[in-house]
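Record type: monomer structure entry
Structure origin: computed from sequence
Chain ID: A
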Amino acid sequence: MVHVKDDRLMPSDDLKDRIRFSFESGHIWLGEQRMLLMHSAASGSMRKELVETLGVEHAKGIMMRTGFQAGVADARLAKKLRPEASELDQFMVGPELHQLEGLVSVKVNQIEIDVLKKRFYMELVWKDSYESEAHKKAYGIATDPVCWMEVGYASGYSSEFTGQSILFVEQACNGCGADDCVVIGKPVDEWENSEEWTKYYESESIVDKILNLRDEVVNLRSSIKNINNEQQDIVGESKSFHSALALLQKATQGPVTVLLLGETGVGKELFARSLHRKSARSEKNFIAINCAAIPEDLLESELFGVEKGAYTGAHESRKGRFERADGGTLFLDEIGDLTYSAQAKLLRVLQEGELERIGGTKVISVDVRVVAATHTNLIDKVEAGDFRRDLFYRLNVYPIVIPPLRERRGDIAMLVESFVDQYKVKYEKDIKGVTEHALLQLERYEWPGNIRELENVIERGVLLCENGGFIELEHLFAMIGVDEKSDGIINGNGKLKTLKKGEHNQFVEMFFDAKNNLFDIEEAILKEAVKRSNGNLSGAARQLGMSRPQLAYRLGKIEEGNQ
């Protein structure tokens, strides 16, 4: 299908609505990707530095590859922005964005696109090219085309959108004295001497080779460290977290009883397992038990074992967790929930290394390293008479406080990357990562459930994310609230607009004059937003300034009320 257009493109409202300015945080968003607003003179200066430092050929390659990656990112946005639109309308998001981002003014002379048949041809006219202006200011009229980043953008966008290698080549350039820039794009194999241009998209500089070698060395060292220390499951670089890790490392040098303190979900069992693996007991068993998850009448038999006939149902003798952990490590999670009777028996094991099974008289010797954990204040329990004071002092020999996730926000990006890598393997999905906007919200959230909650959120994101895509905010948060409001948007005139207080007041007056029910007004507004978005809930949610899950929840409540 061939289309010819004579007029310049005008970026549509659905694109303008995706640009958000947050005045408080200093962020600019295009969809879920963070953008930058910078002086063209500064960008031109950087371009000049690249040329004069690396030479034209290397600078050209860097600029083209940079543009290519920007085009790839915009292509991913395009497919989501207009899911119900025609193939052509979806594709035109790219040229519109290219213009909206301030790089060129775009006119489409001709376009032919059929993704299924792998047909593509496009001819564009670029007016007011930022790159040609920057080059002429620095060097005057050039002998060869100079719109390197823009050509890279068009190639990257079209390649990502169509799923085949598309190459754009500048046929005329304003930087060379032409009135306008003219570019043509078509599949790589339809170009003669395509290697003359494709070579610029290959990173072959000596700098890149050095960086690649450095990365290989870092990865090799990391692999060796993981093999020796088996610490790949503990992720974090924050100061408070490192302090806890340092204490853990020192505890590996002897059999001291360790008490892990911290909120639910901070990773106490991970710490316990790491301590076991790095200790001299690593070849023996690591046994874990959650004292709060086992009924009181069964807890002692689980810990200390039971002899045959000790009570109804005890048809045979059975080892408890202490015996199973002999020579190794026993992790007692939520130890504050132990019964008073079990506390006395635990104290004996810690002091004497001996126990008796329930219903038995034989003294059994065990060599067990105990690692206890709790999220409660054991001192308060001691004062209340619910926890033995002597047991507390015996357990509190070597306490380690694990900080909550809200106190180590700098570690969230590392944890997210680790969990994404873990779950994309589990679910056999190609996930590129998490969008910048989503990561920002993850870092802002308070995480009452700590690392366990973060892990669950990331697992949900991997499941909901499309294969080959990025995890977005709507994939992560279903039932918890996040602040994704923006302070300003681009209106139809291209101006930054904020909702004024007076506009709120006008709406309030209209509401009371109409004498309508508040719930009827809400229903009408929500359904109108869905209608204007052609049934797309994400688009409707953006119009209303809420998340997609929030909109879906409210629509569900409305449907329930109408039944």
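Annotation 1: The chain has a mean pLDDT of 82.
Annotation 2: The two ends are 47 Å apart (CA to CA).
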